[in-house]
Design goal:
The protein is of the alpha/beta class. The protein contains 7 helices and 14 strands. The chain starts with 6 loop residues before the first strand and ends with a strand. The structure holds zinc ion (2 copies).
Length: 277
């Protein structure tokens, strides 16, 4: 049952890098990054990984034809669901797409066009029937996609660039901080500023700190660093997200147990999970 609340969110994809469906990932889910955030009657979608396909069917059922989609960046695990997102295929739907300016100056539109191009894809961007409106910001800027919804942004530390988001609505806040790599021993001031005293912080927890040592430069962080930042910034609830496809359900259970000991009340994101800030 969905909450009787004005502000709530649901996870449609919690994985990073590559979808990993199968019997060993059934409990946490195998789809890549996609989040639904409901602000009163307005829907924000955050990233369009493979989880966007099922969200699109749900939104079509609910007759939601206008929405904003916030993209953290254009890596394929955050983008590949867009052509399969039913509202994007629907004539009369209006999608407002937001992204930070990518390193090198490529636009979001150009990145999607490059993905939807032979020999990678059978149909071009023009084949999407919805009206698409592209909006670009410089990470660090704020904007208001709809009256009453304020979105703050911050630059993340990721190859080709990425933006973190803070969505403020109805006196509460949800932060989405992925993909990003921390520098051990340093505080990421951009992130600390963004997430200060947030109700929920969803954070790139791809690796464990033991795995991280051999993965420097890959652009990802750890649940241990997420818990540390949450403590420093006075975040209420920390949510570990963007799970490595190599972490099956049993491995995720171990992480969830360790995280609960480290920071009571923290959550490991699962597909289908609903949260109220
Ligand atoms: Zn990713
Ligand atoms: Zn990425």
């Amino acid at each position: 049952m969905l909450p009787d609340e004005t502000f709530w969110l649901r996870f449609w994809g919690v994985r990073g890098s590559l979808a990993c469906p199968g019997p060993d990932t059934i409990r946490y889910g195998g789809n890549t990054s996609c989040l639904e955030i409901n602000c009163g009657p307005h829907v924000l979608v955050v990233d369009c990984g493979t989880g966007a396909r099922l969200l699109g069917m749900e939104l079509a059922d609910r007759k939601v034809g206008a929405m904003d989609i916030l993209f953290s960046h254009a890596h394929i695990d955050h983008l590949v669901g867009l052509p399969f997102f039913q509202p994007a295929q629907t004539a009369g739907a209006a999608l407002s797409l937001w992204s930070g300016r990518f390193d090198g100056g490529t636009s979001l539109r150009a990145a999607i066009s490059a993905m939807m191009q032979a020999p990678l894809f059978p149909l071009p961007l023009d084949a999407l029937n919805a009206k698409l409106h592209f909006n670009e910001f410089v990470a660090g800027e704020s904007f208001s996609p709809q009256p009453g919804i304020e979105v703050e942004t911050a630059a993340l530390n990721h190859p080709n660039g990425a933006a973190g988001y803070r969505i403020n609505f109805d006196g509460r806040s949800v932060c989405y901080v992925t993909d990003t790599e921390h520098v051990p021993g340093e505080d990421d001031e951009n992130i600390l500023r963004l997430v200060r005293e947030a109700d929920i912080m969803i954070y790139d927890s791809t690796f464990t700190s033991a795995e991280f040592k051999a993965r420097r430069g890959w652009g990802h962080s750890t649940w241990e660093e997420g818990a540390r930042l949450a403590d420093l910034a006075g975040v209420k609830v920390f949510v570990a997200f963007h799970h490595d496809p190599g972490h099956d359900d049993d491995a995720m259970d171990v992480i969830a147990g360790q995280l609960e000991k480290r920071r009571v009340g923290s959550i490991v994101a699962r597909e289908g999970m609903v949260l109220v800030p």
